[in-house]
Fold each of these.
Amino acid sequence: MHSSPSQRRARLLLPALVAAGAAVGIAGCASGTGAQDDGAAPRLSPPTSAVPLWPGFTPPPTPEEVRPAPSFVRYLPVEGVSAPADGLAGLSPKRLLDKDPNVPKVIQESLAGCPAARCPLRKPVLRDLTGDGRDELVAAVDLPKFQRTLVQVYRATGRTVRPVLIYWGQLGVTGETYGRDLIITSNGDDGRYTVRFRWNGEVMAAVTPRGGPDPRDPAETVPGGVPAESAKPKRTP
C-alpha cells in the first residue's frame, strides 16, 4: 500500500516536533532554578538607641557623704580570770560572764541557777575569728523577759581574757561563720535582719556587704526593759 505525499511529509515532521518539545521542556526547567528578579530589596531599619534631650549638658558631680572614721576601744578585761595555756576551751562561759565588768547585772542574775534545765546560757562555741591560730569563745544568753539575746565573743591575749564583741539582738538570734567573719541573724517584725562582724585588730566590728564599717553600730543596742546605765558596756583605752 502506497502512502500519499501528505502522509510522507507528516512522518518526516514528527521527529522534529518531538525534539523541539523536549528542548522547550528542558529550557523551562532550567529557567525555574536560576536567579530571578523579585524587585527592589526591602530597606533595613537601624536599631533603636537613646537620644539625649540635652546632649551638651554635664550634670554636677554628686557630693560624697563624709562620715567620721569610727573609733574602736577595747573592752575591759574579765576580772580574776586567766586564760589557760591551751586556750579558752577549758573556761566556763558562765564564769566569764559572772566576772565580766562589761555586762549588766541582769546577766549574772539570769545565770544564777546554771547549770540547770532552764539555764538561759547556750552551749559555747569555739572558732578562730581573729586569725591568730587560737579559738575565740562565743557565748550566748537568751533573756525571754526582755525579748533579747546577748552574744559575746571572748579572746585571750596572753593570759588576759576580754570580750571583743558584745551584741544585743532579738530573742533567738542565730549565728554562723563565713571564713573568719561572724554573721548574726535575727527574725523580727520587720523581717530577717543580718549583721556581719569582722576582726579589725581591736574588736569584732560590724561591716557592710562591701567590707566597710557599718555606722549603725548594732553592738551598742540596749535591750528593752534594761536600764541603760546597767546595760551599756563599759570601755577603756
Note: Residues 61 and 84 are 57 Å apart (CA to CA).
Amino acid sequence: MAEPQAPLSEARWRPGDRVPDTASMIRVDQAGEYGATRIYAGQLAVLASGSPAAHLVARMAAQEERHLKRFNQLMAERRVRPTLLQPLWNAGGFALGAVTALIGEKAAMACTDAVETEIDRHYAEQLRDLGDSDPELAADIRDFQAEELEHRDVAREAGAMDAPAYPVLTTAIRGICRVAIGLSKRI
C-alpha cells in the first residue's frame, strides 16, 4: 500500500513531474535524528561528566531530541512507518558515539563534524527535491539543517580537525552515514 504524499502545489507540478517521496524523507530524517541522539548518548556515557566536550555534546543532544520529536510528530500525522532498521541504529549509533569518545574528546568532535557534514548534504538534497511542494516539511528541514551546521562548526572549533587520523575517521563515518541514509529510505 502506498504511503500518503503531500500534494504538490499546482503552480509547481506538471503532469509527468516526479513527485517527491515525502514519506521516505520523513522516515529517513526521523531515523537520522534518532541515530544522532544515540551517538550523543554513547559519547555522554564515556566523556567525563562536566568536561567541556560533555557540555557541548549535551547541548547538541538536546537539539537533536527536539528534531526527533518533530519528525516523530510528522510520522504520526502523515502515517509514515518508521524504518525497520531502528534497532540497528540504536545499537550502532550508541557504539559509534562511545568508540569515538573512547578515542578522545577530539575524536568525538570529529564524529559530530562528519555526521553533520553528511546531514547538511542530505538535507540540501531533500530541499532541492521538495522545491515548494511541501512548505511545512521544507521549513522544518531548513531549520534543522541550520542547527546541524552549527553543530559541525562547534565541533570544529572544539578541535575536531585535530583528532587522530581525522581524514580517515571522518571519511569512514561519512560513508556509514550515506549507507544508513540509503537503507533507511527504503527499509
Note: Residues 83 and 187 are 6 Å apart (CA to CA).
Amino acid sequence: MSQHCLKFLKYTMCVANFLCFMCGVAVLGFGIFMMVSFRMAALLPSLASLNMANLLLISGIVITCVSFLGFLGALKENRCLLLMYFLLLFLLMLVELTAACVLLFFEGQIAAMIKEDLNKSLKDSKEGTRNSTDVLNEWDLVQNELTCCGVQNVSDWGDKVPKSCCEQECDIAEPPYKEKGCLDKMRILFEDNFLLTGISVIILCIIEVLGMCFAMTLFCHISRSGLGYKL
C-alpha cells in the first residue's frame, strides 16, 4: 500500500511541477516581450526596477527553477532535492506575504511616489529635456491605453497638449480632450484589480502549501522505505 502511495505522490508531483514549469516558461517569455516592447523607466523612474516586465521576468525565472527542482526531486526520488524544494516554496510564500503587507501598509507612500514621478516626467516632456522624446512616447502609450490625459487632467500639458490626449481628431479648432487624468485612471485600475490580486495571492499560497505537503510526505515515504539518495 505504501508503495502505491509513494508512486501516486511521485507522479502527481511530476505532472504538477511540469505544468508549473511550462507556465513559468510562458511567463518568462511574456516578460521578455514586455521588456522589449513596453518601457516605462522614463515615466516612473522610482519604480523602474518594479515594472510589470521585470516582475514577470523574475517570476518566470523563479517558477521555472523551483518547478524543475520539484519535478527532478520527485522523479529521481532524491530527498535532498525534495528538501530544497520544500524550503524554497516556504521562502517564496514568506516573500509573497511580506510584499502583500508592504503594499497594504505603504499604499499612501507608493501613491505619492507615483504622483511625483508622473508630474516630474510630464514637466520634463514639456520642457524638452534630454530624454523628453522617450518620456513623451511613454506618455502617449499610457494615455492611449488608459484613455486619460495628463496627471490630473488636460490642463497639466498647458499649450503643449499631445495628440494622444484627443478623443478622436486633433486637427479641428477645439478638439475634445480626454477628461480623466492618468493618476485617477491608475488608481481605478488598481482598485478594480485589488480583489482579483488578493484572491490570486491566496490561491498561490494554497498551491505552495500543497506543494510543501506533497514534498514532505514524499520525503518521509522515501526515508521510511529506504529508497532514494541519502542526504
Note: The longest helix spans residues 182-225.
